Amino acid sequence: MELKETLLSSFLAFDAEDGPQNKLQKHRRDAIEVFENQGFPTKKLEDWKYTSLRGLTKESFSVFPKKEVSLKLDNVRDYILQDVDTYKIVFVDSVYNSYLSETTHDGVDVCLLSAALSKSKFSPIIKKYFNTATTKDDSLTALNTAFTCEGAYIYVPKNKVVEKPVQIIHFSTGKNPNLLLQPRNLIVLDKNSEIQIIERHQSLDNNNSFTNVVTEIFNEENAQLDYYKIQNDKNSSSLIDSTFISQQKNSHAKVHTFSFGGKLIRNNLNFYHHDKNICSTMKGVTLLEERQFVDHHTLVHHAHPNCESHQDYKGVFSENSTGVFNGKIIVEKEAQKTNAFQQNNNILIDDKSSINTKPQLEIFADDVKCSHGCTIGQLDEDALFYLQSRGIPKKEAQGLLMYAFSNNVLKSVNIDSLKKRINKLIANKLKVNIGFDV
After folding, report:
1. How far apart are alpha carbons 124 and 139 in whole angstroms?
2. How far apart are CA 313 and CA 345, in angstroms?
3. Whose CA is closest to 59, among 234, 204, 178, 202?
4. Is the C-alpha dihedral spanning 406, 407, 409, 413 positive or negative?
């Protein structure tokens, strides 16, 4: 049985269960109909021209974990940011792990989506926001909506600055073989609020894993979001990450994506402007090797005047790795005085690696400042020779150049301990030992 048919059969059992998710029954039933009609996206679709899911759809995945698995901190210490005080929402094989987590309702709600669905005091937020930012005709988003059960729920009330960052972490242990994880996150920032969030999905063994995550984020007037995605998984792990950000007047949303490993990673990052004086920032660093694959698919929809968006993605590819960057900026006729910048720079270390890059502008306004561009090249041989002539070994010289290449992305990371962690990940990926922080 193909994966699509398996999922449709599984939905019948899921839909019959009595639980908090039944409050979303209409959303779920409408969504499964979309998935049934469309199935998994194929390369015949323009947005999936360079990304094939055939290998995944031939696998036999289950949406229900057969057993609950416990983890000790020592087993996962390397994947959790420890040297800064944070709230933590940790899931193990899609099941909440209270031992590793630290949630709160003290001035801010950092808890489980299932808890928000089951308690009436959260109903107004759920009713107002859930499934309102997503693209309704996207089959993978619809699949996630159909099986929505668990994930992170974060609500920041008006005028609240959350002093501690929030970590959202999903572990796949392999103890539930071929498990399809479908977490759903709902994050709402009310007027004049601020928060920092770190998200990570991590496999703990080499069994096949597949995660299809959807995150809806709402930045109300003057809200400030600082979001970091860390993707450094095993070569047997696949991730489809769809994030939808709805922004209101004077809000600023920043998303940094660090993609350092995985069999297949697809990042769908969508920003929607619903008023004026909005700023959206997207930055990313990709370092791939072996047969790893990452596809960054971004959209910024400018629909109102005096708004800005800034995109800066860096990619380094070696061995048989493949990268894709497909960025689209839409500027509606009403969006005068828009300032939109998009840049994608890539380095291919050898002849076996490849990158497909397609920055796009669709501009219907006449008083705008918009630019886009991409570069694909190799390391500067003169710079490499200069460093080697000063006694720096070739690998370390390459590492220094790579650090310099990604520096303008790293310097905008606002959590010092996270920046140090990312620096170490980059050094390990490049197999060099550099004794300073960027």
Report:
1. 27
2. 6
3. 178
4. positive
Query: What is each CA distance from 63 to 144, 211, 244, 274, 430, in whole angstroms?
Result: 11, 10, 23, 35, 36
Residue 84, domain member (yes or no):
yes
- Residue 121 within a domain: yes
pLDDT value for 21 = 66
Q: Specify whether the CB–CB gap between 225 and 254 falls below 8 A.
A: yes
**Which tokens belong to 292?**
């790893």
Contact 40, 133 (CB under 8 A): no
Separation CA 353–CA 91 (nearest Å): 34
Residue 96 lies in a domain: yes
Query: And the tokens for 14?
Result: 């899921």
Number of domains in the chain: 1
236 CB-side CA count, 13 A: 14
In a domain, 110, yes or no: yes
Which residues have C-beta within 8 Å of that of residue 340, sequence separation ≥ 6?
A: 300, 302, 308, 309, 310, 329, 331, 361, 368, 369, 370, 371
**Quick check: 220 and 190 in contact, CB under 8 A?**
yes
Q: Which residue has the tokens 């080499």?
A: 206
Tokens of 437: 């922080």
Number of C-beta neighbours around residue 376 at 10 A: 16
Nearest to 289 by CA among 264, 315, 320, 259: 320
Residue 105 belongs to domain spanning: 3-430
- Tell whether the model's pLDDT for residue 162 goes beyond 70: yes
Question: Coil, strand, or helix at residue 134?
Answer: coil
Give residue-wise pLDDT tens across range 220-232.
999 999 999 999 9
Q: For residue 145, what is the enclosing H or E element?
A: helix 139-146
- Angle, helices 3-16 vs 25-38, to 10°: value is 170
- CA-nearest of 327, 408, 322 to 362 is 327
Residue partners of 165: CB distance under 8 A and separation at least 6:
81, 84, 86, 87, 195, 196, 197, 198, 415, 418
Model pLDDT for residues 345-397, shown as the tens digit of each residue:
999 988 899 999 998 999 999 999 999 899 998 888 888 888 888 888 887 88
Six-digit token pair at 188?
A: 């709402």
The whole-angstrom separation of Cα 216 and Cα 132 is 8
232 strand-pairing partners: 261
Region 146-160 average pLDDT = 96
pLDDT, position 404: 79
